[in-house]
Design brief:
Layout (H helix, E strand, L loop, with lengths): L2 H15 L2 H45 L4 H22 L9 E4 H11 L1 H6 L3 E6 L5 E4 L1 H18 L5 E10 L6 E9 L6 H4 L17 H11 L3 E6 L5 E8 L3
Helix pairs in contact: 2-3, 4-6, 6-8
């Protein structure tokens, strides 16, 4: 028997070891991802065209009222949408993203402003402690904002009325001789995560929420990994959840 025959035989044996139901689930997931990619590409083009008149209008408003905070926020968010759409259109290509210097504390502050209505609506107490120095990383500001907003929304949905949410940053080293990283910790006192859900938390389309899409945390994890970082979670049912995001710092 040749080496190729041995390899093929080994592959067949490994496939046979996977339970048929689990294999069907994985194949279905891949098919849904492929369909989603095709749909996203077509939607991205239309969304980008629809943004043009809105961006023009907001620009004119800011020229007449430069101190209009809400208009400035709208323009920033439209710019973020445009960046996401552009990235979707380039997804199938091999072009690398153009990362720049980003202050994580500024991204966190803006992300928290975006979820302020949810905080106030549930009377959730927010505490923040931004101690990381430096807070400068190499990355994409809009992508990082998307990741943090996803984590904030996830925490707020799990946190009850008059709950608590804390956001902290610090610079840490994860081992002797390891480079210094910026760690963002997002902690809530919500419902927590069961062991069964924990194992599939970052799996696309998996969700324990009645109306969830199962895409928020997988997207967040992908963004963090693309920034050469890491994400981890600690939780027990009924004891809230703590997410840690690690990002390499710029000296």
């Amino acid at each position: 028997m040749t080496g190729t025959d041995n390899e093929n035989g080994s592959l067949r044996e490994r496939l046979l070891e996977i339970p048929s139901q689990r294999l069907d689930e994985r194949l279905m997931q891949l098919d849904r991802l492929a369909t989603l990619g095709t749909l996203a590409a077509s939607m991205a083009h239309e969304i980008r065209n629809a943004l043009v008149p809105g961006k023009t209008l907001v620009g004119l408003l800011l020229e007449k009222h430069p101190d209009a905070e809400l208009a400035g926020m709208v323009r920033r968010e439209m710019g973020r949408i445009d960046a996401i759409v552009t990235r979707m259109l380039k997804f199938s290509g091999s072009a690398r993203l153009a990362f720049g210097e980003v202050h994580v504390h500024e991204v966190l502050e803006h992300s928290l402003r975006l979820v302020q209505p949810q905080l106030e609506g549930k009377y959730i107490s927010l505490s923040r402690s931004f101690l990381a120095a430096p807070d400068l990383v190499k990355g994409d500001e809009y992508q990082l904002q998307q990741a943090f907003v996803n984590l904030f929304v996830n925490a707020l949905e799990a946190t009850g009325y008059k709950g608590t949410l804390s956001v902290t940053t610090e610079t840490v080293s994860r081992g002797v001789g390891e480079p210094v990283q910026l760690r963002v910790t997002i902690k809530d006192n919500g419902t927590g995560i069961s062991p069964e859900v924990m194992g599939r938390l970052f799996e696309p389309f998996f969700t324990a929420k009645p109306h969830g899409t199962g895409l928020g945390l997988p997207i967040t994890r992908r963004i963090v990994l693309e920034h050469h970082g890491d994400i981890s979670v600690e939780s027990q049912p009924g004891q809230g959840a703590t997410f840690h995001v690690f990002l390499p710092t710029l000296a």
